[in-house]
Amino acid sequence: MATPDTTPTTAGADAAAVTENADLLRFATAGSVDDGKSTLIGRLLLDSKSIFEDQLEAVETTSQSKGYDYTDLALLTDGLRSEREQGITIDVAYRYFATPNRKFIIADTPGHIQYTRNMVTGASTADLGLVLVDARQGLTEQSRRHAVLLSLLRVPHLVLAINKMDLVDWSQEVYEKIHREFTQFATKLNIPDLEVIPISALQGDNVVNRSENTPWYSGPTLMHHLEHVHVASDRDLVDTRFPVQYVIRPKSDQYHDFRGYAGQVAGGVLKKGDEVVVLPSGMTSTILRVELFDQEVTEAFPPMSVTVHLEDDVDVSRGDMIARPKNAPKPSQDIDAMVCWMTNEPLRPRQKLAIKHTTRTGRAMVKDIQYRLDVNSLHRDQEAGELGLNEIGRVQLRTTVPLLCDPYSKNRTTGSFILIDEATGVTVGAGMINSGS
Fold first, then answer.
1. Which of 292, 314, 302, 317 is nearest to 410 (CA)?
2. Which end of the chain is more exposed for a tag (fewer CB within 10 A), N or C?
C-alpha cells in the first residue's frame, strides 16, 4: 500500500534508505550584509557544475548590464526583485545541488536582524550552519548573533567561513585572530563541532578547490568538509518516536483487512516484533511489519517515512504516537519553551493560539513570559511583558491536549512546535521545548 512522502521501491529498500539519508546534508548560511553568502552559494553551484548554461548566461548578462567587471554569482540565489535591487538577501532561498558524494539542500538565510524569523525558519531543520564573516571586518555583532541562534536551534555542526581573504592579502595573522576570537566566544554556546575555513567566494579559493594562496592552512576545503561531515549519528536512535500522520484503511477487495499507520520516524528504530505502546491511550501491541512504500523493511529510523502495521486491532488515529513501553514521552499540557515570535502583533500573557506539535494539533494559552533573550549579549530581560516581532523569549504555555514531547535538546522533531493565529491561519511563532509536565 502506498505511503505518503516515501522513496521509490528498490531491490534493497533498507540499503537505499540508509544511503539516501546518509548522503543528504541540509545546511543553512548566515552572515552580515555583504559578507558574501549568496556569492558563496553561487560559487558552490557553479564549481560543482550544478547550474545550466542558460542560467549562467543570464547572470553574466545581468552583471554586465549593471556595469560589474565580474560575474555576480549572488544573482543565482537572490531571486526576489527587491533583493536584487538592494543587493541583500531577504527571503529564505532554498537551493538543491549534488556532487558524486552527497546531495545538498541549502537554506540561504538573511542577515538583517529584522529577518531573524526567516533565519530561524531556514536553520530549524539544518544539519550544519555556515556562518560567513568578512576578513576585513572580523567578528561583528551580527556574526555573534547568528552563532547564538544556530546554537539555540541546536544545529550540531558549524562552519565559520572567513571570506574575502584575498582583500587582506591572505594574511595568516588575520585568519588566526578571527579563529581565536570566535573559538573563545563559542565556549559560551552549545557548538559541539566547529570548523574554521579561510576562503574567497568571489575567486573560488578553498571553496571547491584548494587554494595556493593559503600554504599555511592545512584544513579541508569547504566542499570537502560539506561532503564528509558525519551527520547520521546526530539523530536520536535510542528513543523510539513515531507520530502517526495518517491511518490507511483502503476498504477494498484487494486490501480488505488492511490497516496501516503512516508517518515519519522522529526517533529510535522500529523493527518487526518490537513491543510498542500507543499514546496517549496507553494501549500496547507488537509491530507486525514495517513497510517502505509497498515493500517490507527490516527496520526504520529517522527520517524515514514508513507504514507500521500492528498485530492487535488497537485504536490509533492521527496525532497519536507509537513508542516503546519503557521509554515513552510523558504527555504534557504545561509546556516550558523558548519561542521565536514572527508577527507584528506582540505575544502577551493570556493570549490564546492554535498549536501544532508533530502531527498533533490543539489550542494553547500563554501563561507567562519569563524573560526575553537578547541574542546579541545573551542577557535575559526578566521585566519583559511581551515578545515583539523577531524576538525570542522563554514562555510558559498551557495546552488543551497533552503533547507527547521531548526536550528540544534531545529531539529536535518532538521538541519543537509552531503557534498559529486561529483567525487567519498564519504561523506566528516557533517554539523549542525545554520541558513539559
1. 302
2. C
